[in-house]
Write a structure and sequence with these properties.
The complex is a heterodimer of chains A (about 300) and B (about 290).
Chain A: E1 2-7, H1 15-26, E2 35-39, H2 47-51, E3 54-62, E4 66-69, H3 79-83, E5 89-91, E6 97-99, H4 109-113, E7 119-122, E8 125-134, E9 137-144, H5 151-168, E10 173-177, H6 184-190, E11 195-200, H7 204-219, E12 224-229, H8 235-248, E13 252-256, H9 261-268, H10 272-275, H11 280-300
Parallel strand pairs in A: 1-10, 1-11, 2-9, 2-10, 11-12, 12-13
Antiparallel strand pairs in A: 3-8, 4-7, 5-6, 8-9
Chain B: E1 2-6, H1 14-27, E2 32-36, H2 44-48, E3 54-65, H3 75-79, E4 85-88, E5 91-94, H4 104-108, E6 114-129, E7 139-146, H5 154-160, E8 171-175, H6 182-188, E9 193-198, H7 202-218, E10 222-229, H8 235-243, E11 247-252, H9 255-262, H10 267-270, H11 273-290
Parallel strand pairs in B: 1-8, 1-9, 2-7, 2-8, 9-10, 10-11
Antiparallel strand pairs in B: 3-6, 4-5, 6-7
The chains are: A alpha/beta (about 300), B alpha/beta (about 290).
Amino acid sequence: MKQLVILSGKGGTGKTSVTAAFAHLLAQETSPFRTVLADADVDASNLELVLSPEIILREDFRGGQIAAIDQDRCNACATCQDVCRFDAVLDDGEGGYKIDPLACDGCAACVYQCPEEAISMHDQVVGQWFRSESRYGPLFHAALRPAQENSGKLVTLVKQQARLLALDEGCDLVLVDGPPGIGCPVISAVSGADLALIVAEPTASGVHDMRRALETTNHFDVPAMVCINKADIYPEGAAGIEAFCQSEGIPVVGRVPFDTTVTGAMVEGQPVTVFQPDAPASRALRRVWDEVTARIEELSG
Amino acid sequence: MIIAVASGKGGTGKTTVATGLALALSESGQTVACLDCDVEAPNAHIFLNPAFEHRETVNQLIPEVDPDLCDGCGECADVCQFHAIVVLGGRTLVFPELCHGCGSCTLVCPHKAIREVPKAQGILEGGPAAGGGPLLAGIDFAQGLLNVGEPMAVPVISQLKKWRGLIDADIVILDSPPGASCPVVESLRGADFALLVTEPTPFGLHDLRLAVELTREIGIPAGVIVNRDGIGDAGVDEFCREAGVPILMRIPMDRRIAEALARGEALVEAFPEYLDRFRDLYDRIVEGVAS
C-alpha cells in the first residue's frame, strides 16, 4: 500500500482540483488501484466541496490542553506570568491574572510553578474528524475550529485512520490532499508518504514556494514529482520550473493549461474531469495521472 | 494603525493586496512598515525588492541535560506535556523536534542538571524596500523564514512582530499565512483591522467563513476584498451581506493582472490606477475602525 501526497508550498495553486480529478480517475473500473482518500488540509478542507461525502462517523478531536486560573486560590504573585514564554498570562484589570486561551501553548509550566496550586489544565475539543463515503470511495477529513492549534496532530490522525482502513480493506493507495506551507501540518502530511506530487504555478511566487516544498520533501526523503498548473500564464516561469527540476533530477510530469473550466467545475461541485472531460485541463490532468500511476506502479515493484 | 491581510484559502491574493497597500501608502508620504508573516512561504519580497540590511536568527531554547548532575528522577519528563524529554534506563533523553521551548523541565529539575541551549528555527531579515519600478516608496520591510523541516512557525512570527522598524511606522501591514489556525492567530494578534482576501468560488467562500469566524473569535474588525471578481458564483457576496462584513474592494479577473504578478511585478506598478484605489481602501478602513 502506497501513500501519495499532493503538495504545493504556495496556497491556491490547484492542489484540491488536482486531487479531485485523481479521485475521479482512481474510481474508474480501469484504475489499477483501490484507494482511500484523505484531506490533510484541516485548516481549510475543500475536497469535501467537490466529493459530496456522506459522513458515516464523526468524532471529536481533543487538541492540547490549556491552563485556567482558579481565582479563589490565586494570590496574584505573578509567578505564572514570569514563567510563561508565550505571553499567555494577562493582567485581568482587577489586580489578578487570567489566561489568554488563544496564546496558551499548553506547556503547563505555570501549573507546576504556581505556589498556590491555583492553575490547572483543561481539555479542549478543537475540532472534529470524519469518515465519509464519497462518490469516489472512502474519504477521511476533518475540521479544525478556527483559531486552534495542533493542526499537525489532527493531520496525523486523519492519515492514520485512512491508512488503517486501507490496510483493513486491502487497498493499494492512500491519496492525501495536503495543506499549503512547509510547517507542522505539512510535515505531518509528508511523513510516511511514498511519493509527493507538487502542484506548482509558473509565477515568481509559485516558483519560490515550490522550491521550499521540494526542500521539505527532500528533507524527509520523500521522492517528488512536479506538475505545472496554469502553465501558459507565464511561459518563462514554466521554463524556469522545468530547468530547475531538470537540474535537480525531479521529473516534471505535466503542464496543465490555464482553463476557466476548472473554476466552472468547482462551482458545480465536480472534478473538472467529470464536468468537462474534453476540456484542455481535463485532458492534461489525465496525462499527469498516467505518469503518476506509472511511478506508483514502479514504486510498488 | 496595524492592518493584517489574511484569507483562509491560500493563493487568493493576500500578497498582492499587502504589497499594493504598502506601496500606495508609502508613495503618498506615510511611513509604512510591512512584515511578511507567511514564514513558511514568504513572497512579499518578490514584489517589494527589499535590500536586506539586518538579519537575526530565531532560536528556540532546548534543554540539555548534564549527565553528571542528573540522577534520572524523571521530574522533567513528568512535567513535559509534549513528551520531548524522557527517562529511559536511568538516562534522560531530549527530542528537540518535539520540544516547545517552554522551559518547564529546567524549572522543575531538583538537581539543576538541565540548562537551555539555543536551536535555530528560522531567520528574520529586513531592510528598506521600494518596489521594482519608478515609485518613490520607502517601506520598512522584514520577513521571517522558517527553516525547512522545522514544524513551528509561531515563534518565528512572534519574533518578527517585535522587529525593530515598527516603532516609527504610522502604518504596519502584515501579510499573514493562509489557513485559520495558530500561525494566523499569531499574525493577527494586536492588529486593528483584518483585510480578508477571497475569490468568488465555493472554495473561497468556505475558507472566508472560517477567516471571518477567526477574526470574530480574536475580536478584530474585518472587511473583504474580492479578487478575481467575475469568476465563480455569487456565494461570497451573499455571505458577506448576511454576515454583515463589508466588501471594501473588488479586483477583476484579468489575465493581464495575472501575467504581471507572475512576472513578479507589484499590482500598483503594473497598473498605477490601483494606487488611488488602495489609498481609498485605506481611508475606508480608517473610517471603519474609528466608527
